[in-house]
Amino acid sequence: MALTKYNYNSFDITPVASKALAFNSDADGFTTATEGDMVLIKTLTASSDSTLEFEDGTDDVVLDNTYPIYLFKFINIHPSGDGVRLQFQGNAAGGSGYNETMTTTSFRAFHNEAGTDADLQYVTGTDQAQGTGFQDITDYGGGSGGADECASGELWLFDPSSTTFIKHFMASASTYLNSDYQSQKYHAGYFNTTSAIDEIQFKFDSGNIDSGTIKLYGIKDS
Amino acid sequence: MALSKVDYNSLNVTAAASKALKWNSGADGFETGDVAGALVLLETQTASSDDTLDFTDNIDSTYNEYVFKFYNIHPATDQAHLQVNFRDGGSSYDATKTTTTFEARHNEDDTVATAAYDGGGDVAQSTGIQLLMSYQGNDNDQSCSGYLHLFDPSSTTFVKHFMARTSSVQYDNRQRDNYIAGYCNVTAAIDGVQFSMSTGNIDAGVVKMYGVS
Question: How confident is the model at residue A222 (pLDDT cuts 50, 70, 90)?
């Protein structure tokens, strides 16, 4: 049986460039719809993984000049160890190794469940000054100490494909600390390189990512 | 020659209001869905002298992150606090929480500019409300806006993290920038979120709930 093919102008609506086809608000006709400006690119789900990588051009990952801003969201990240921090690093296009130079800041607010300890403080131990190590993005999270303990948050990466400017990033996270504290931790900084960054890797400073999800989104500029 | 146009009800899928036409996951049929884009508007509530704004629908496992954006929340009473609480089953908004909060503030006359931990705004294993903004002004032009992220509320394995940031004009004409984060220390699913004022009602304002796909 021959199929009847419908062409772009076969539908009862005037085509509009770059718009989607949708049903109208009464569900009794067609309309056009605009695509959202925040586009899910890739979801990685950890299962006792030592690392999770987002590499441009690999496994449908886009991390280039397609978007000016990228957003990673990490949800219910549960470590195999106890008192460990989720970290990230970048790799420059054409480079080898996650070891880009960074200068960063780190501060946190914390509060214990007993209600006896709470403060806001700069954390010198988890910032970097022209370091090439992995950068913390969560606090000392629980894992083996409690099956319900985890961290969630987000990491923004700005214009990673620029070959003119350094590359800024900003992260915030809520962490269940291994000592039964809630921590609200903030990190920001820049990859101090004019090379494009096209690969990002996440890992814990010790042990595996037992479970959790990291999603990568692209934010359109128009 | 006149074209014979395909009508909306000619396709092998049930029309759904404001939904896009998509191929299904097997690429062997049609389905309706949201237009590509990760932020999906689920519900909008507009306050009109309401004691509370309750979100009880659509908070489930469909999305593993929900975002509430609130615009121009105007209290009926001067110096009232905007607050939130979470429901973990049942009918009461009383999920146990441990949180942190810190703030920056700056007076319009430039006499005060500080940043500090807010020990009066956090809670430790409390079932009571969590402050989102304190001492709001209620002049006609004064309001509070901000957002609240709630992560994976349907998990029955993990605690439920949330993170919020709010900006407000306070009663004494100062800008206040609040940061709040914490977790509902329960493994029951969170199935409701309630916004309220510490005294009086929510005179006006809009709260929108989105799912993040």
Answer: low
DSSP code of A148? T
Best CA proximity match to B90, nearest among B200, B160, B186, B158: B186
Q: Using an 8 Å CB-CB cutoff, list chain A residues near B101.
A: 109, 184
A140 compared with B13, residue with greater pLDDT: A140
Residue A164, pLDDT above cutoff 80: yes
Tokens encoding A188: 């920001």
Measured at the alpha carbon of residue A101, what is the angle toward residues A99 and A107, in degrees to the nearest 5?
A: 105
Instruction: Report helix, strand or coil for B9.
Output: helix
ipTM summary value: 0.79
Residue B7, token pair as written in the block: 């009508």
Rounded distance between C-alpha atoms, residue B40 and residue B211, angstroms? 5
Maximum mean pLDDT: which of A106-120, B12-26, B102-116: A106-120
Rg of chain A on CA atoms, in Å: 21
Closest residue in A to B120 (Cα) is A118
Q: Which is nearest to B204 in space by CA: B47, B1, B31, B44?
A: B47
Q: What is the mean pLDDT of residues A104-114?
A: 94
Whether B11 and chain A come into contact, CB under 8 Å, resolves to no
Q: Choose from A37, A66, A113, A213 for mutation: most chain B CBs within 10 A.
A: A113
Residue B64 · residue A213 · CB < 8 Å: yes
What is the token pair recorded at A141? 């999270």
- Check residue B38 and give its pLDDT: 79
Q: Looking at residues A131-149, what average pLDDT do you find?
A: 90
